[in-house]
Design a protein that fits this description.
There is one protein chain. By secondary structure, the chain is an all-alpha fold. The protein has one domain. The protein is 54% helix and 0% strand. The protein is flat.
């Protein structure tokens, strides 16, 4: 993958660790704390600023984009493989890696595979989810306040 922007690990080990952590962390600040092993007494505002500045570095941002794309591609491939395996179970056309047919799936396994495949494809019945406030009370409506422009004096 040489020549693709961000495909090579960064020369600075801390920057590479930050880019890798950005893929697995909830926030850039968390990734920065992890990569730089920060003490807990550093103010969150400072950590956010450092993380933001580093994430906007052209080399680091290119690396993060490349890692995210690679991870996304892997997830898509895994989904395709899962669909293929489930389809084989449902249709009973399972073939091993050696090219020989496997034992046909049991009826309950075929049904379970069909249900899983339908859920993965979004074909399952819509679900109604009831939301409530504290102790089961109704949720309050947000109140909006209209702010008028000041009149010219």
């Amino acid at each position: 993958m040489e020549g693709i922007k961000g495909s090579e690990p960064l020369d600075n080990k801390k920057h590479e660790a930050f880019a890798q952590a950005c893929i697995n962390s909830r926030t850039q600040s968390d990734a920065y704390r992890q990569a730089f092993d920060l003490k807990k007494d550093i103010p969150p505002k400072n950590v956010w600023e450092y993380a933001s500045r580093l994430a906007n570095d052209i080399n680091v941002s290119s690396r993060i984009k490349f890692l995210r794309k690679t991870l996304t591609d892997q997830c898509i491939w895994e989904r395709e493989e899962a669909v293929k395996a489930l389809k084989e179970i449902v249709t009973g056309t399972t073939v091993g890696e050696d090219g020989k047919e496997r034992k046909e799936a049991l009826a309950k396994d075929r049904i379970a595979a069909a249900i899983a495949l339908n859920k993965m494809s979004g074909f399952d019945a819509p679900q109604q989810i009831e939301l409530s406030g504290a102790n089961g009370s109704p949720l309050g409506l947000a109140e909006f306040v209209k702010i008028d422009k000041p009149k010219d004096t």
